[in-house]
Fold this sequence. Notes:
The complex is a heterodimer of chains A (396) and B (100). With 396 residues, chain A is an alpha/beta fold. Helix content of chain A is 40%, strand content 17%. Chain A has 15 helices and 14 strands. Chain A has a 7-stranded parallel β-sheet, with helices on both faces. In chain A, strands 4-3-5-6 form a 4-stranded parallel β-sheet, with helices on both faces. Chain A has a 3-stranded antiparallel β-sheet with strand order 2-1-7. In chain A, strand 1 (2-7) and strand 2 form a beta hairpin. In chain A, helix 2 (55-70) crosses helix 3, helix 2 crosses helix 11 (282-291) and helix 6 packs across helix 14 (355-370). With 100 residues, chain B is an all-beta fold. Chain B has a single domain, classed as Archaeosine Trna-guanine Transglycosylase, Chain: A, domain 4 (Roll). Helix content of chain B is 0%, strand content 36%. Chain B is globular and about 40 Å long.
Amino acid sequence: MRFNGYRRPDGTSGARNCVVIIPAINCANDISYQLAMTVPGAIPLCHTYMCPYEKRDRDKAVRTLIGIGKNPNVYGVLVVGTGCEPVPAEEMTEGIKASGKPVMTLSINTSGYDGVMEKGREFLLKCLAEASELKREPCELSDIIWGIKCGGSGSLSLLSNNAAVGRAADLLIAEGGSVIFSETPEILGMEHTLAKRAVNEEVAGKILKCVGELQKNISYYGVDLLGSEPNKGNMASGLTTIEEKSLGAIAKGGTTPLMDFLEFGQAPAGKGLFFMDCESAGDPVYVGEAAAGAQLSALSLAGGMPAYIRGLASCGGAGLQTLPVFKVLGSNDCKSEEQFFDVCVGSIIDGTESIDEAGERIFRKLISVVSGETTFTERYNKYWAPIAFYRNGLIV
Amino acid sequence: MKKCIRLSDKDNVATLLNEAANGDEFAISDKSNTQTGSITAAADIPFAHKIALKDISKGEEIVKMDAVIGLASRDIPCGTHVHIQNVLSIEGMRGVKDEI
C-alpha cells in the first residue's frame, strides 16, 4: 500500500506542500506576519520563543523551529531574524538547509524593514511558484510519521477511541511506518507498563527517569493533580484518578514495542513506536510532533469535555498550520456532533463495530489525509495561536 | 439487560455502558463482549462511571484492566459508585498529603 505525497530532496515524503516564514526570535513575529499578509499562501509560523528563555529551553526551541522547517510538509522556508537573537538566524537556516530544500535568511538589522519586506516577498513568491509545480507521487507508507494526541478523556477513551487509534497505530507500524505519542503527565502511574514495552533497558530507563523527575516536581511544588489530571470533564466522564486516565491514554500507542524515548522535538532515528517527552496541553504536543518530522497528527476525543467545545475546530489547541490534525470521536452519546469530526467510533460502544474494524477505518482516513484530503480543522479553523514550546526551565 | 464491562478477571470494578438507577440489574461482560456474570446496582451511577463488583475495604487497591488505579479512601459496598468520593490517587498523594 502507498500514499500520494510530495517527494523531498532528503528522501522524505510530505503530506502538505507549505511555504513558511519562521521568525528566529519572537521579536521578528510582527514583520513575519506582515510579510505573509503581502504574499497570499505564505504561512507565518509566529511563536513564543524569546530572549529570556534559559539555555535548556532556548536549545529546545531552536531545535524545534529547525525541525518544523525541515518537516517534509514544508517546501521552502524564509527565516527572519532581528540581528540580535541569542542563536543567530543563520544557524537556524543551516539546520533547515540539511534537508536540501530552499531556505533563505533575512535580518532586520542588515536588510532593514523595507529590505526584508521586498527581498522576502520575492523569495516567497518564487518558492510558492515552484511549490505549485510539484505534483503528488506515490510514496511508501514507511515514510509516514504519525503523531497522536488524546483529549477530552473519559472512561470510554480506553474502550473506544484510544483503543481504535492504537489499532491504527499498530497497522501503520506493520507497514513500516512510525508513530509518536506523548504527554508525560498522562503516563503517570502507568510508566512501568510502558517501560516493560521498551526495546531495551536504556529506553526503559529514560522513561522512568523522566517520569521520576515529574513526580519529584509534583512533590516539591505540592501539586494537587485533581482538577487537571484528571480535570473536571474527565471526572464527569467517569475517570477517577490520573492512573486511570493514564491507562486509557497509553492505549492510543497500540501494542508494539517502544523503540525509543524522544526529547521534545527530537526526530526518531528508526521506525516504529516512539514516546516523546511533553506536557499534556494540545499545542506543544503538535509542535513537538511536527519538529520530529510527523506529517500528520490525530486528536482522539471521548466524552470528557462539554459537547459544544468538543466540536470546535481548534478544540484542545489547533497546533500549527503545517500539520494536519484529524479528530476521532469515541463517544456514542452525541450523534448531532459527529459532523465536527473526521472519524467517529462511538459504534464500538454501541456494539455495532469492533475495535479492529474502527481501527481500520482510522487507518484508511490517515492514508487519505496524508494523500491530500483536508481535515475538519484545516477546513474550519481560522485562528492559529503562536507556536508554544514545551519548557522545563525558568524564564529569567 | 443493561451492561457493564470488566476488562480483566482481577478487576474489582466495572465500567457501566448504561446509566444505573439503584436496583437495576447489569450483565457483566468481558473484553470480548461475552457475559461472565451479573450485578445489581446499589446506587444511582452515571453512564461510563465505575461500579464496585465486590465489597472493597478502606485502603484496598482499586483494580481496572489488571492495573492499580487508586486506593479506596473508605469502605465501598458491592454495587455502589466507585469515584472521587471514595478513591484516592497514589500519584496524587505525592503532591497533596491525603491520609487513608
